[in-house]
Write a structure and sequence with these properties.
This protein is an all-alpha fold. It is built from 18 helices and no strands. The longest helix is centred in the N-terminal third of the chain and has 35 residues. About 45% of the residues are buried.
Length: about 450
């Protein structure tokens, strides 16, 4: 006979109340501790997930310049860098090549994952993220050719792309608060990733040694997910729950009420028609977010390298690192701003970011940016980051708030393809733009 039956049978109302009251205080404290552990874990997951991706973009100029210099000294038959014959100080290969290696695998994962990722338990997904993140730093650090370096960047892309799909889907198992902490963590990855790379290289470490130091991040990702996070019992960690099967056993359905299924976190699998319906409802957020990221990454990987102040005390590579760091600072501030400001009309941010891109493109074409001064460019870059981060955090917050519980996990995973799609298109366009400007006498 259990406790509840004993109470029913012989306890007075006062005794029942006393017995029910006893566990209330410690249970509340435990829940509060679990809540803060989960919020902290999601912030760290966001930080670790985007860290390798950010560092590879911050190191893009160094990766290509170092490899080009080594190649040209090893072989005298190769043509000299474009910077020798152009009024722009350019690498032979655009930094957009690193961007494409850093984003195309993510694009493939994000486009396809919402249709099969639910069949893979979360712990396996996170394990792959940890291994590929560590592999990316090792490959780029010990690389002796551009091809191997780009392979390392691909590993970073796989880790980041799979991680974003996984962790955004994971938010469906927790309170909606975790979305803002995840977003803030991804912004933190931007500022800490670019700033740590800038700081380590400024302190005298080589780019390769700096990347080896970053191996602490995959270890932190492991600790955050497997030890800090307090997952609910309904989370499919190492194995899938029965309700993910394509055809649940019909004779069991009447035994489980809809309220019980909701309490246990179980929802029937979405049909393809239902998934397509959800995606169409998300386009009002997905399209503007794609445009925002197209414009800002066209700036970052297509124009940053061409904005060079030759009379500055900083070298070209140092200026590029500062551009990346300041951009990420703006992203971090805006991705952490959800409690202060929410934006529903993401298209406004898309329009402002396009104006930014057009202004800087015209500035590169007519070479009037140096006359504005380096400080003005720094301010413009921070503003660019504010727009990008604001679009990201508000898009996913709007989706999390508006989505029905049974489609929320899929909606969060499907929407994260938006920024990746915009970034991919920008990388494809940035390469010919780079070649055009660097080919000018």
């Amino acid at each position: 006979m259990n406790r509840r039956e004993i109470n029913r049978g012989g306890s007075s109302d006062g005794e029942e109340q006393d017995e029910d009251d006893r566990p209330t205080a410690p249970q509340t404290e435990t829940q509060e501790r679990s809540r803060w552990r989960n919020l902290s874990a999601f912030w760290l997951l966001g930080l670790c997930n985007n860290f390798a991706y950010v560092v590879m973009l911050s190191a893009a100029h160094d990766i290509l310049r170092t490899q080009n210099n080594e190649t040209s000294t090893a072989s005298t038959t190769e043509s000299p860098p474009v910077s020798n014959s152009s009024k722009y100080d350019c690498n032979r290969i655009s930094t957009a090549a690193v961007l494409l290696a850093d984003i195309l695998p993510t694009l493939v994962i994000k486009f396809t994952a919402p249709f099969y990722i639910h069949l893979i338990p979360y712990n396996y997904r996170v394990s792959v993220c940890i291994l590929t993140a560590a592999g990316s730093f090792l490959l780029v650090s010990y690389s002796t050719s551009v091809a191997v370096s780009l392979l390392g960047v691909v590993f970073a892309s796989v880790s980041s792309g799979l991680g974003e799909v996984t962790f955004l889907s994971l938010t469906a198992f927790f309170s909606s608060d975790v979305v803002s902490y995840w977003s803030s963590g991804t912004g933190g990855a931007g500022i800490l990733g670019s700033l740590s790379y800038l700081g380590l290289t400024a302190a005298g470490l080589s780019p390769r040694s700096s990347l080896l130091v970053m191996l602490v991040i995959p270890a932190l990702l492991l600790i955050s997910y497997f030890f800090l996070l307090c997952p609910p019992s309904t989370l499919p960690a190492w194995k899938l729950p029965p309700n993910t099967l394509p055809y649940p056993c019909p004779d069991r359905r009447p035994l489980i009420s809809e309220s019980q299924k909701h309490e246990k976190g179980g929802h029937p699998p979405l049909t393809l028609a239902r998934k397509w319906q959800v995606i169409k409802s998300l386009l009002k957020y997905m399209v503007p977010l794609s445009i925002v990221y197209f414009a800002e990454y066209f700036i970052n990987q297509g124009l940053f390298e061409l904005i060079y102040f030759s009379h500055s005390s900083m070298s070209h590579s140092e200026q590029y690192r500062w551009y990346q760091m300041l951009y990420q600072a703006g992203v971090f501030i805006s991705r952490s701003s959800l409690r202060c400001l929410t934006i529903r009309k993401i298209w406004i941010l898309a329009l402002l970011q396009c104006v930014n891109a057009i202004f800087l493109l015209v500035g590169v074409a007519y070479l009037f940016l140096p006359s504005l001064g380096l400080a003005v460019i720094f301010v413009i870059i921070i503003y660019e980051g504010l727009l990008g981060g604001g679009a990201y955090v508000n898009t996913f917050n709007n989706i999390a708030v508006e989505s029905e519980p049974e489609v929320k996990e899929f909606a969060m995973a499907a929407a994260c393809v938006s920024d990746t799609f915009g970034i991919s298109i920008s990388g494809v366009i940035a390469i010919p733009v780079h070649n055009y400007f660097c080919g000018l006498p």
